[in-house]
Amino acid sequence: MSNPKAALKTAFSDADFIEGLKTGNNAALRALYKKYYNIVLKIVVNNSGSSEAAQDIYQETIIVLFENAQKPEFVLNCQLQTYVYSIAKRLWLKQLRVNGHFAAIKEGDEEELADVSEEVSEHLQKEIELDKMAKSLEELGEPCKTIINDFYVHRLSMEEISEKFGYTNSDNAKNQKYKCLQRLKKQFFEK
After folding, report:
1. pTM
2. For residue 24, what is the DSSP state?
3. DSSP-based three-state secondary structure for 73
4. Nearest CA to 121 among 80, 152, 79, 93?
5. What is the mean pLDDT of residues 91-114?
6. Rounded mean pLDDT of the chain?
7. CA distance 151 to 158
8. Which backbone phi and psi does 125 adopt, to 5 degrees?
9. How far from each other are the two terminal CA atoms of the chain, in whole angstroms?
C-alpha cells in the first residue's frame, strides 16, 4: 500500500529533489520544475532574452540537472538554487555567444547585456571554496560531520540532534556543534 502522505508532499528539501531526480519521483520533478523557473526567467530576460527563450533554457537546465543527478559520483555541494542558477547562466551565455548577441549589442542601444563576468568569477570562487569546505567536512570525521550536516543541510533542530546523538539536552548538542565548527574552521583555513 502506498503512503498517501508521500504523494501529497509539497515541500521538498534539496536532498529530496536530488533523490527524486535519481528515482524518477514525478511529484519531486514537478515541484522542482515550478520552484526555480523565476530565477532562470530573470537571468534570461535581464540579459537580452524573451520568456520563450527562458522556457527553453529552463528545460535544458532541468535536463542537465537530471543527467548530473544520475551520475553515481554526483554530490550537491551547494544549495540547489545556486546549482540551477549556475547551469542556467552557463547555458544562456553559451546561447548568446552562438547567436552572436554579444556582437549585436551596439553602444547606443537601450537594451544592453548585463555584465556577468564578475558574477561568474565570484561564483567559480565560491564553488572552489565549497569544494574545499566539503573536503574539510569529510576529514572532520564523526560525529562532527553528521552534526554539522544535520543542522545546516538537513535543518534539524538542536533538540532533534540532541535526541539523535543521545545528548542529555539541546545545550549539550549546541556545545558540541560549536566545538565541531571550531575544528572545521581550523581545518578549512589550514588548507
Report:
1. 0.48
2. T
3. coil
4. 93
5. 56
6. 78
7. 7
8. -65, -40
9. 51
Report the distance separating Cα 140 and Cα 94, nearest Å.
Answer: 39
136 alpha-carbon distance from chain centroid: 19
What single string gives the DSSP state of each residue in 144-179?
A: HHHHHIIIIIS---HHHHHHHHT-SSHHHHHHHHHH
∠ Cα 71 143 18 (to 5°): 25
The C-alpha cell of 46 is what?
A: 535581464
**All domains in the chain, ordered by first residue:** 9-106 (1.10.1740.10), 122-191 (1.10.10)
The DSSP annotation for 107-138 comes to TT-S------HHHHHHHHHHHHHHHHHHHHHH
C-alpha cell at 22: 535519481
- Asked if 34 and 47 touch (Cβ cutoff 8 Å), the reply is no
Q: By percentage, how much of the chain surpasses pLDDT 70?
A: 81
Rounded Cα–Cα distance for residues 155 and 157 (Å)? 6
HSE value, Cβ hemisphere, 13 Å, CA-based, for 170 = 6
Distance CA 34, CA 39 (A): 10
